[in-house]
Amino acid sequence: MKKKDHSRREFIATGLLAGLTVAGCSSGKNPFEPAAAEQVQPSGEKVKLLSVNGEVIEVDKAFLKPVPSMPAVSNEAARLGIPGKKFVMVIDLSRCKNLKKCQASCNHMHQIHPGQNWIKVYPMQEAEHTAPYWQPTTCMHCDEPPCVKVCPVDATFKRQDGIVLIDSDRCIGCRFCMAACPYSTRVFNWEELDLPKAVADQPYSCETSIPQKMGTVGKCDFCPDMVRQGELPHCVSACPNGVFFFGDMNEDAVTNGAESFRFSELVKDKAGYRLMEDLGTKPSVYYLPPVNRNFPFEKEEQGTEATHKKS
After folding, report:
1. Which of 247, 246, 159, 244 is nearest to 206 (CA)?
2. What are the residues whose beta carbons fall under 8 Å from the beta carbon of 269, sequence distance 6 or more?
């Protein structure tokens, strides 16, 4: 299989060399000189480049054009993760009103197939006489992920920063990972996705999870492309009630954008817990119980799934 991914340096070098070749460097004309119609104003800042003839040339920075659709990071860097980080999410069930803004934002940003969701919001109830509540459920990004152990082609992998991702370039669609996941958070792309051209033309990145491909598995990815830019995952920033907190366990800090807490104190003071703790998967998603709720439970009128009993 031909390796598609290159390092950032290799990609830039390839793009520049291709541009020089197309422009015809052998003519002696500087291929970076703008056409008269472009009317680009020189910045005065010079950049040294190596031409295809092996000559070092100086070009004004204003005349350089960015390489279109360049991946933010190489595939190797995406699989490695962000050094020194251990990402964690806390979901406050007392704040959830089932607005599903988190779901809509995730679906839009990841171009998820209609009818599928990476974030599922379940109506939950502990027992017959207890009050129901809403539970947003994402990939748990487990420290001991069973999905990674069963993947035969290393398409599902765990990074050093705790995020579990899927490399669709490697995924063969066997769905072993879906069977192994006890949280049922993965979906299968059965059909070709109708993607906007701007999205379909992008080079695939397992950090953005787009463009998705038919015959592969998708799931919540903790938005590592946003995290790498110092931004919050889309579900966190989209929720108007501050349900989702995201942060770095190593820094002992989580935030929903408006409020920030020490992670250790938040889960201790508010009796945080993880789903199916007895399985030993060690999830990176913690829940705060639905006490002192901000909103009453309002059942959906249509399309509501059966209320789940917490196990």
Report:
1. 159
2. none
